[in-house]
Amino acid sequence: MKKYSGLLLVPAIVGVLAVVYPNIFRRTDAIVAELGPLLSPGASIVLPTSNATLFIELTRRYIEVMHPDFSAVVRVGAEADVPVIIKYANRKGRPILAANRRHGWSVSLSSVHNAILIDISTLTTINIDAAVNTVTVGGGVSAADVLGTLYAAKKQTTVGVCDCVGMLGASLGGGHGRLQGLHGLMTDNIVSVQLATASGEMITVSNTSNADLFWALRGAGHNFGIITEAVYRIYDQINDGFQFDAEIIYAPDQIEALFTAIEEFTQTPETSIFVIFVPGPDLIPIVSLSFSSYTPAAQALSQFEASFGHLPHLTRTDSIVPSDQMNTVGSLGLGHVACQSRERKNTYGASLKRYDPPTIRAVYDSFAQFLKTNPAATGSGILWETYPVHAVQAVPEAETAYAHRQERHLVMLLAGYPNSTLDSAANTWLGSVAAALHSTGGFERPMVYMNYAQGTEGLGALYGYDEWRLERLKALKKRYDPEGVFSGYHAIPSE
User: Fold this and answer.
1) Nearest-CA neighbor of 133 among 116, 111, 157, 110?
2) What are φ and ψ of residue 208, in 5° steps?
């Protein structure tokens, strides 16, 4: 029987594909004959009928609730393959979606059907030009790739806190990180990009070339093309690339005092504060804080003690962490949050000007009740992020499409559970918590960091409510992508 065990898996795999991609076996593999000869030697086309196991792996997302429908994956072998694939898809009337690490979770992804996935994860070049302080990265690099390379070169720039997330995907939605108080958002550090447009042309986009599109890419970039390469500003390391990191666990009765202390803390450009609520062994949520700073340890410790030292705690660990390990060793290991098992997840977000401690207490209590009622939701959590905003707010509001420069706190709400039976309960809980946070968060109307958005909040919440801003984005969409080729992720309409 063992000899034929592999064959026994075939019906199971076929069954999975038939459920996830209901039209898949009515499609042909003509793409191999038609597109294959036009691609570089290193490119490959993966079909569900040719390699079902690989196809499933390449199309799976880290948030299983949102699932675009693909009929083929094209793994590019070179930058030049991307415009070739776009032109082919246009001729055939086929939707496309680019992917690197596949972490985006907008519900709009589920509107993508019979699409060609353009896998750019193979574009992994990283080149530092120390003479002009820039780094050029391929469209497939991750945060970890950039952190490691820059740390070794004694350089730095703003990079996200989850190692496995793509550098460019995060940047296009804004891109928060621990160094933003000194250097601005990830998107603020983009110097230029190579962009494959909706018509399949390759263009350079920068402040001096296609400047209107450069404005749009920084904050709404998923709507305008596929970036195959980007140049970022980099900087000399501070504090030899090391960070002080204090990790503390508090009893739940300290929540109001803790968030009051965070709200009253005079934040320096080098310091970030994260709090996370996660299920404990008994499903009662644990309250953990990470206080990290690029200042020398004695200075960072003094800052922490002055603002948080009076709070009783359960445990505390202080450490000095090199910046290339901060996402995994420091800051509560938050770099693993988006990189963990691909169980079923649903996610909402909220951007806040201020923390309201009574609201946060109510959120904690609702989380505890959600876990008690749904004990299988052990993959759930709430992440509270307080980044420094000095360099972020030094950038004029109108300079980029990113519309949330007045936010001080980000909240990511995550429900993780084994299967779809908890979808409704999770969605109800997440939506109620997001609404509560918006009501006391300091903005007149809901604001959501685009990379954390669920996709149902509306254009204003993602891209800003200023009429001029939305009209400009719509006009640029009409000019550069009138047919909506790039509309799978938080789409901007052209009308």
Assistant:
1) 157
2) -115, -5
- Predicted local distance difference test score (pLDDT) of residue 8: 42
In the chain, how long is the greatest CA-to-CA distance?
69
**Single-letter amino acid code for the residue at 265:** F
Question: What does residue 277 show for φ and ψ, rounded to 5 degrees?
Answer: -105, 120
b/e map 301-328, b = 16+ CB within 10 Å: bebbeebbeeeeeeeeeeeebebbbbbb
Note the pLDDT of residue 5: 39
> What distances in angstroms separate CA 368 from CA 286, 332, 359, one per listed residue?
10, 20, 14
CA–CA distance, 398 with 19 (Å, rounded to integer): 46
* Collapsed DSSP state (helix, strand, coil) of residue 483: coil
Tokens of 21: 């991609």
Question: 409 Cβ partners below 8 Å, 6+ apart?
Answer: 351, 352, 353, 354, 355, 384, 385, 386, 441
Bridge partners for 175 per DSSP: none
Per the listing, tokens 């415009």 go with 83
pLDDT: is 330 or 38 the higher one?
Answer: 38
Q: What's the rounded Cα separation, in Å, for the pair 213 and 218?
A: 9
Question: What b/e readout covers 157-171, taking b as 16+ CB neighbours within 10 angstroms?
Answer: bbbbbbbbbbbbbbb
Cα–Cα dist 444/440, whole Å = 9
* Sequence letter at residue 394: A
- The single residue listed with the structure tokens 């199309």 is 59
What is the pLDDT at residue 340?
A: 67
User: Against a cut of 0.85, is the pTM above it?
Assistant: yes
